[in-house]
Amino acid sequence: MGVVQGPAQQTRPSLLLRDIQVHRGRQTVLKGLSLTIATGAITVIVGPSGVGKSTLMGVLNGLIRPVAGEVSVAGLGPLSDPGVLREHRRRTATVFQEHALIDRLTALDNVLLGMADRRHPLSPLPWPADLQRRAAQALLEVGLLHRVNARADTLSGGERQRVGIARALVRNPSLLLGDEPFSAVDPALTRRLGDEFKSLVSGAGITVVLVLHQIDIARRLADRIVGLADGRVAFDGPPETFDTAAQSRVFPRHELQHDSPASQSTS
Ligand SMILES: Nc1ncnc2c1ncn2[C@@H]1O[C@H](COP(=O)(O)OP(=O)(O)OP(=O)(O)O)[C@@H](O)[C@H]1O
Hints:
By secondary structure, the protein is α/β, with parallel strands linked by helices. It has a single domain, classed as Rossmann fold, CATH 3.40.50.300. About 30% of the residues lie in helices and about 25% in strands. The protein is built from 9 helices and 10 strands. The protein has helices at about 55-60, 80-90, 105-110, 130-140, 155-170, 185-200, 215-220, 245-250, 255, and strands at about 15-25, 25-40, 40-45, 70-75, 75-80, 90-95, 175-180, 205-210, 225-230, 230-235. The strands form 2 sheets. It has a 6-stranded mixed beta sheet, sandwiched between helices. It starts with 12 loop residues before the first strand and ends in a 10-residue tail after the last helix. Adenosine-5'-triphosphate binds near residues 25 and 53. Adenosine-5'-triphosphate binds near residues 25, 29, 50 and 52. It comes from Thiobaca trueperi. Keywords: ATP-binding, Nucleotide-binding, Transport. InterPro entries: AAA+_ATPase, ABC_transporter-like_ATP-bd, ABC_transporter-like_CS, P-loop_NTPase. This is Phosphonate transport system ATP-binding protein. One of its GO terms (molecular function) is ATP hydrolysis activity.
């Protein structure tokens, strides 16, 4: 199976995965997968259902340990080192599906939860003033300062996404991960949220890795697309080269022929 090498391959690496194997239950899901994640770029992972996209995200955030191969973080070292793992996890933030806000809390309190590891979980005290200032600054950066005291359940879909992004960015992450962050909304809204997401995160120098199942959104957002098939990388290149032929190397024929996400886009 051919692997297309795109220009992103030549940029500065943030994470290096070498020949990793991962088991889930009794099956080997990732079968000697090698991949370089470029610093400061948006990498989008695509592939058929069950191929191991979420598993790969678990490897990237250090929650899933490969049984073979190595994951290393540029400038830090291998994730198998507990000190490296701790620091990597401190530098990593996640955007969740539908942004997983707590409805009864304000926008500010939801953003503060992004820094929950900075204070005792049972603390009865108010959040320290410096963290409150940081959370308000994060809301300012996503254009939501005027909604700082609004309860999350009074926010629009776009506003909720911006709170979710502020909650991730307030951690000042070097790596931002999102597994299908836009999956539950209609296609037009998904496109709008995707464009807004891209404009909020790009320019901040953050390395972003997203799993997306809609190929047109993946092509719109990605600086680089990584397609998985059979536990390995079957495509790796810029979005404009992820054409029909490349898609057919990643998605099985029946998924391309029917109303699958992959069939929504040709080049
Ligand atoms: N906790 C688990 N225990 C056992 N098997 C698991 C577990 N989690 C996932 N799997 C299996 O591992 C394989 C890869 O799952 P994964 O969720 O990574 O795929 P995916 O590409 O993200 O799928 P989808 O697009 O459907 O979300 C699947 O066959 C799945 O059934």
